[in-house]
From TrEMBL:
Protein name, UniProt field: Alkaline phosphatase
Documented EC number(s): 3.1.3.1
SUPFAM superfamilies recorded: Metallo-dependent phosphatases
Keywords: Hydrolase
Single Gene Ontology MF annotation: alkaline phosphatase activity
Domain named Phospholipase D N-terminal: residues: 36-126
InterPro entries, sorted: Metallo-depent_PP-like, PhoD-like_MPP, PhoD-like_sf, PhoD_N, Phospholipid_Metab_Enz
Ranges for domain PhoD-like phosphatase metallophosphatase: 140-500
Enzyme class: hydrolase
Amino acid sequence: MQVRLSRRKLLGLGVGLVGVSRGQAPLEPQGVFPIGVASGDPSPDGVVLWTRVAPEAFRPGEPIVVEVCESPEFLEPQGGLIETGFGPETDYTVRADLDGQLEPGRGYFYRFIYRGVTSPIGRTRTLHPPGTMPERLRLGLITCQEFGSGYYGALAHLAREELDAVIHLGDFIYEYSGDPRYRRERFLGRAFRLPSGSYLAVNLADYRALYRAYRSDPFLQQALAAHPWVFLWDDHEFANDTYWDPTTHAPGAPDHPFQGQPERLKKLRLEANQAWTEYVPARIVYDPMANEPHRQMSQYRRLAFGDLLELFVTDTRSYRSPHPCGEGGFGQRQFATCSAQMSPSQTMLGAEQYRWLAENLMQSPAKWRGLTSAVMFSPLRSGDLTLNTDGWDGYAAERQALLNAWARAGVHNLVVLSGDLHSALASQVSPTFKPGEPWLGAEFMAPSLTSPGPAETLRRLAFWPGNAFLEQANPHLNFFDGDINGYAVLEVTPEAVRYELYWVDKTQNRPDAPKRLARKLRYRPGRGLEAG
């Protein structure tokens, strides 16, 4: 909701008072705001702020206050009351959309106050307005943070980075805990049970519990409080390898026990959508009364960082066709080649989102045009075998149509940001991905934060060909790393885009977990990818 701020000190609202009755112990911040604060989807004059109040501290009718200030001391805060939409119906999560309330291109501190108790302080930033050209922009890139597959030391490092925003490229949660089909628990303190007793989410309570478990991590709380975030949706926010089945007009989820039960899957998707909107601070279209997933939530959107970068945030899961070669596991959903991959009827984006992306990206006046795709955009092959049919390779005709349209328009400043593959890479983007063609831009993939990479997974199956082999088999790749966990930083200037890739040891549950710079590249139009 939008909260009207005013330049005043919020006198008479209980600020600074300890909300306790006689004989009770004072409330502590951790007892009221146990999973911290966050901000998301900044605009030139606003941002979405978020927190959650502990159910034990909640009192019906008790207002919650939000304060925003340019100084951490909050000497002259702007503030307002959040009066509605807060309680058990939102799992006690609180959202305040301040769009139109702040000044452009500035840093702010914010906090919530409930029953006289102040939340942790967060930092956020608004975007530079249209018509301005920032000298530099720094974006953190992360993805795939399976809770049981490692610790979040990388997020402690990310919290200390100098960033304008963090782009989360999907899989903020995984829909399971202790799923025996995937892997056993080997990181102390990372196991938890879902309310349903199932090993994967089967209702709204399960999805809510997953978000609470992930957000209980102190390093994730630090990173969420340190920067504004932009979130994408991938499959594990709902179910593994999900797609949209036009024959049943419902989601498909080939690994979920509800597969083959379209009405149950449709209801579950509505519940996954609801939990995402409760726990993710994003400015999207959401209708809580809708009974069809596409009408309930639409999350593709665009953010302009002045005239330097326009970022097109896409949804590559909600509208996509079924996998072209079948739903029979790795041999069909990942490692497969079939004629249906090039079928014009295969869509990754759906007709409406496709038109939105093709036309608006082509017409963007920004110095750099950014495409965020939860899944890999460039091809990944070994001879005639496709190695990532779950990515854009499974929807190659639609990808080719986009590339052709952008090539005709003379696009040369495209920056694709992707995730999902639990790897890091940089790739030439050109009309057919063949060496010697004019570049449209470059793709940079964020490594998984903790989720096991293909090297770890496929070595167990004696099927890992190696990073060097994949680079050689795909000449458009500058590099490929299927062993790495960590994060990346994208630095954008009018002249170049720089990509810094950091490995962080996920086995160390420490804020100073070992870290090293694994790769540093830059892309310049006319010169392509080069070291530095």
